[in-house]
Design brief:
alpha+beta, Heat Shock Protein 90, 7-stranded mixed sheet
Length: about 700
């Protein structure tokens, strides 16, 4: 005949395989709770751990049951002395060996006290526990009426270090202190290395951040047709929402009860530290409601998902939820759990329960968003509007009538806009319009460019911006004066200007009037005109250049003319010293240019300059073969303007006669100042030749 027995190594393996120190201490607290204790005091140090309760204690028979492996007089879900039982495997006590090698148990019941000690080294060395006797001593001096004290010594250093890390986290410490969901038990944890035993929170502003409460009671919350519902409480209003019918059958089971009490927050300028530490999940830096099963903490952070709607719409996600979810099971095997009670094993009921939590979290948040949106629609709105003096203000607000008008803290009969100020208009639905009556701003003159090319036509609005006070429309200037006058030609009707020679100091005097505001402003501005860059030159000349093309063009003239042009420009730079030489040289330069133009036109050249000049000045030549063929419209318009200006002033046809005077009389008859007025015509002729040589 053989006999079944258990080796001492089995007890060692059971204790060592307990998932963690937190679970081990929870098992011991739960044992005290199921022993109907109202107080559990835990003292922790590197040398010793003590768990002391004031429960019903144990007699000899119960001690014997305690020490019998996997023997238990507990039935899961049974209520004993008002306490729900959540353990039944008979292994919870052996959690003590997770922390240390030696355990001493002192217990008292019905005024009888007993004490015994266990040594894991001795237990694990036994081939069979059947032959191991555990001496139980009677305690004569009983200081307490009932209760049990467990003292663990020869603490395992590595295990203790891990346990210490858990205890030093405020959220984990708070979860241990509140591991039992009952006001009838108080758990106190004292750490030898730290007097702070609970987390602390500044909750003075927390109520301001609360959005709503979400409530569900599977036994009480049902309507006349038997369908269950959950509630949302907000601003003193109660909203009921029926749950999906597929969960009704699950909750109709008399041995299953679910209670949910969750507060939803919008912390805004606050942070998660303002919420109680117990709800904080350090793994993902979130706050989560607590889950209790048969009033014992179910240490699972993922069973309830507050971010379940994140894939749908972020608007329907309220992440900051705290509170409690309670599952009461009054019959065994309805839902099973893994060894450390952090997960439910797969079953029909566990799947339904998970589905319900997902359903509740998702729909509660969706319905809450709908409530908030409807509140926002009904909430009085404030509209900020502006208008200018003497402008008709926008006071429309759907079809709501004006209730009253306030200006300068006085009630008014109507809104007037003849002076600056702020008006408050309140409507029958309590919406507000805050109307600011403003002075109109000044109209605008803004210079766009200040450097101009000789021979290019510009519109006024190429050079300046003219806008009214509302910056909505352009204004024509009342006055647009440009000096010196001999450096430009203007068409005031078309509002165009062309600069005919370089000038380093061009002055603009401008005035505009805004017909909206009736404001008039004046402005003075400066600019420079310069020849366009062309080949054979690397820089643009300003004022100290006399001869130059009026447009960007290749200067493919004969070498003698090009050298002559450069020498004239060199002399012009020092014109005060060489004025007579410059004056007497101009006719020769012009004659060479005119003769080359006649040649390029294919006309018969005359021995007299005047006749050659008439040939090239014929409209079919200078306009049809030169000006009208310029591709750049602005350059064409600029060159044409210089040509027309010379004609209108009668200077063009008399240019040759004038130049004859420079040769024969030099500086006696004519001065350089006088001949400078003909520079645009000379440059027009030089540009004419350059163009024909393209």
């Amino acid at each position: 005949m053989a006999k079944l027995s258990v080796s001492g190594k089995f007890i060692k393996e059971v204790s060592q395989n307990i998932p963690g120190t937190k679970f081990a201490i929870i098992e011991l607290i739960k044992n005290s709770y199921e022993a109907q204790s109202s107080s559990v005091r835990i003292y922790i140090s590197p040398e010793k751990i003590t768990i002391q309760d004031n429960g019903k204690g144990m007699n000899l028979e119960e001690i014997d049951t305690l020490l019998t492996v996997s023997d238990s007089n507990k039935i899961f879900g049974q209520e004993v002395g008002g306490v729900l039982i959540s353990g039944e495997k008979g292994l919870g006590f052996f959690s003590v060996f997770k922390f240390g090698n030696k355990v001493k148990v002192d217990t008292a019941k019905d005024s009888k006290g007993y004490s015994f000690e266990l040594d894991m080294k001795e237990i694990s060395s036994q081939k069979s526990l059947y032959n191991l006797d555990i001496p139980v001593k009677k305690i004569d001096d009983i200081k307490i009426h009932s209760g049990t004290t467990i003292t663990i010594t020869e603490i395992y250093k590595e295990t203790f270090d891990i346990f210490k890390q858990t205890l030093d986290k405020d959220n984990e410490l708070m979860r241990l202190i509140n591991v039992i969901d009952s006001p009838e038990i108080n758990v106190e944890i004292k750490k030898s290395w730290d007097e702070k035993n609970t987390g602390s929170n500044d909750i003075t502003r927390l109520d301001e951040a609360k959005i709503a409460s979400a409530l569900f009671d599977s036994k009480l919350m049902k309507n006349k047709n038997g369908n269950k519902f959950f509630k949302l409480l907000r601003n003193g209003n109660e909203y009921k929402f029926e749950i999906d019918k597929k969960f009704n059958e699950f909750f109709d089971n008399e041995n299953i009860k679910v209670n949910i009490d969750i507060s939803v927050y919008n912390l805004k300028g606050l942070s998660k530290k303002h919420l109680p530490d117990i709800y904080y999940n350090s793994v993902n830096d979130r706050v989560v409601p607590l889950i209790y099963i048969n009033k014992c903490l179910f240490d699972n952070y993922t069973l309830y998902n507050s971010e379940i709607n994140s894939s749908k719409s972020n608007k329907q996600v309220f992440r900051q939820q705290v509170g409690k979810i309670s599952l009461i099971l009054t019959s065994p095997d309805l839902i099973s759990f893994n060894s450390d009670r952090t997960k439910m094993t797969e079953s029909v009921n566990s799947i339904l329960f998970q589905e319900f939590l997902n359903y509740f979290s998702s729909n509660m948040q969706i319905f809450l968003r709908n409530i908030l949106d409807k509140e926002l629609e009904k909430k009085p709105k404030t509209y900020n509007r502006t208008c200018f003096i003497n402008q008709t203000p926008d006071l429309k607000n759907d079809n709501y009538k004006i209730k009253y008008i306030i200006h300068n803290e006085e009630k008014k009969d109507k809104v007037t806009t003849d002076s600056p100020g702020t008006w408050e208009i309140v409507y029958s639905n309590n919406d507000k319009v805050i109307l600011d009556v403003l002075e109109r701003p000044d109209p605008i003159i803004k210079q766009k460019i200040s450097e101009f090319l000789v021979g290019t036509e510009y519109r006024f609005d190429d050079l300046f911006i003219f806008e009214d006070c509302e910056s909505t429309r352009k204004i024509k200037p009342l006055e647009f004066t440009v000096t010196p006058e001999d450096c430009r030609s203007m068409n005031r009707k078309l509002q165009t200007i062309t600069f005919n020679r370089p000038c380093s100091n061009i002055f603009f005097k401008i005035s505009i009037e805004d017909k909206i505001s009736n404001k008039k402003i004046n402005g003075e501005y400066m600019g420079v005109s310069q020849f366009p860059i062309s080949n054979r030159t690397s820089e643009v000349g300003i004022e100290d250049v006399m001869v130059h093309p009026l447009m960007q063009i290749d200067q493919n003239v004969k070498e003698d003319i090009y050298i002559f042009k450069n020498q004239l420009n060199d002399i012009y730079k020092d014109r005060k010293k060489y004025e007579y030489i410059l004056i007497s040289s101009l006719r020769t330069f012009v004659e060479l240019v005119v003769n080359d133009i006649v040649e390029k036109l294919g006309e018969k050249q005359d021995k007299y300059l005047e006749k050659n000049f008439k040939i090239i000045s014929d409209s079919k030549n200078i306009k049809d073969r030169f000006i009208n063929k310029i591709q750049n419209e602005r350059e064409k318009a600029g060159v044409l303007e210089i040509y027309n200006q010379a004609f209108s002033q009668g200077r063009y046809d008399g240019t040759i006669s004038y130049l004859n005077l420079t040769t024969h009389g030099a500086g006696r008859i004519i001065s350089l100042k006088q001949i400078e007025t003909d520079f645009p015509i000379i440059n027009l002729l030089y540009t004419y030749l350059c163009f024909l040589n393209l």
